[in-house]
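User: My advisor asked me to double-check a structure prediction for Major Facilitator Superfamily protein before group meeting. I don't want to rely on an old file, so could you generate it fresh from this sequence?
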Amino acid sequence: MSIVATSPPSQDDIKRIVPWILYVIFFSVLNEMVFNIATPSISKQFLLQPSEVSWFTTIFILFFGIGSIMFGKLSDLFSLKHLMVIGIIVYVSSSVLGFFFRDHYVTIILFRAIQGLGASAIPAINNTIITRYVTIAGR
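Assistant: Sure, here is a fresh prediction for Major Facilitator Superfamily protein from the sequence you gave:
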């Protein structure tokens, strides 16, 4: 493992990254809202009991928590940019794969877990960026 030592970004860099942070946060929240709206339809499609339907949310939140801890620790060791890109790739690819393999309840649950891991990078890395690089007055 290598520890990444980089110079802090300038204020211009911070101003350039803020719109991207907002963009990523907006679409991650939008994705979760859309999935939650679709949950009753998924329940009807698979003839699921309420306890089975709750796994869609439970597994996502469980792996989101695990991923938050993981990305928080990794942010001390690796480039924030690379970690964010990895998180977004995992999040998007698991969303797409979940769509293509949506015919089976177990695969949806599996891809929701992976999606939770990828999604956890967004707040973990964003909070690290703000804490490290934005002055208290700038917050």
